[in-house]
Design goal:
- The relative contact order is 0.24.
- It contains three helices and six strands.
- It is globular and about 40 Å long.
- A six-stranded antiparallel β-sheet has the order 1-6-3-4-5-2.
- The longest helix has 18 residues.
- It has a single domain, classed as Beta Barrel (Elongation Factor Tu (Ef-tu), domain 3).
- By secondary structure, the protein is of the alpha+beta class.
- The structure holds adenosine-5'-diphosphate (ADP) and magnesium ion.
- Adenosine-5'-diphosphate binds next to strand 2 and strand 5.
- The site of adenosine-5'-diphosphate has 19 residues, from strand 2 and strand 5.
């Protein structure tokens, strides 16, 4: 399914869809990084590892979806890193290793339902990434280059 997929690029401003207000800030990649995704990669929620400006490598969950701003013909890649940062890191270099697929995109009836799903995604990602097949990527040379 085109995984693992490695990507790096500058963190850009998203569309302020309130991810941070949901307790789940998502760092957005520019379009050129999105365009380099394998063409057959499904939209939905992925998990893997990420680093900012070649700092510590942390677990992450990523949402890949169609961007309504560009008439749904451009995908967006939004990464939530499972780490607490002191400051925003717009303009810095984000590196991600996408390792596995969690679920398809779906709609939610309420904000509570959406928040519940995100928490479920994060819990699953945490567990899966401790498995030997995945955790080995935490020290992958890609994060040291
Ligand atoms: P935007 O619409 O600009 O993407 P968000 O509300 O999604 O706004 O917040 C994303 C920003 O929050 C990131 O670009 C980054 O600078 C910052 N941030 C802080 N902590 C994290 C984190 N743990 N994971 C992802 N982004 C984070
Ligand atoms: Mg965002």
């Amino acid at each position: 399914m085109g995984l693992p997929h490695f990507a790096k690029g500058e963190v850009i401003k998203g569309f302020g869809r309130g991810s941070k207000e949901l307790g789940c800030p998502t760092a957005n990649f520019p379009m050129d990084v999105v365009h380099n995704l394998p063409a057959d990669l499904d939209t939905g929620v992925y998990f893997g590892f990420a680093s900012v400006d070649r700092g510590e490598v942390h677990k992450m969950v990523m949402s890949i979806g169609w961007n309504p701003f560009y008439k749904n013909d451009v995908k967006s890649m939004e990464t939530h890193i499972l780490n607490t940062y002191d400051e925003d890191f717009y303009g810095k270099e984000l590196r991600v290793a996408m390792l596995g697929f969690l679920r398809q995109e779906r709609n939610f009836k309420s904000l509570d339902e959406l928040i519940g799903a995100i928490q479920g995604d994060i819990r699953q990602a945490r567990e899966k990434l401790d498995e030997p097949d995945f955790i080995k990527y935490k020290t992958h040379p890609f994060f040291k280059e």
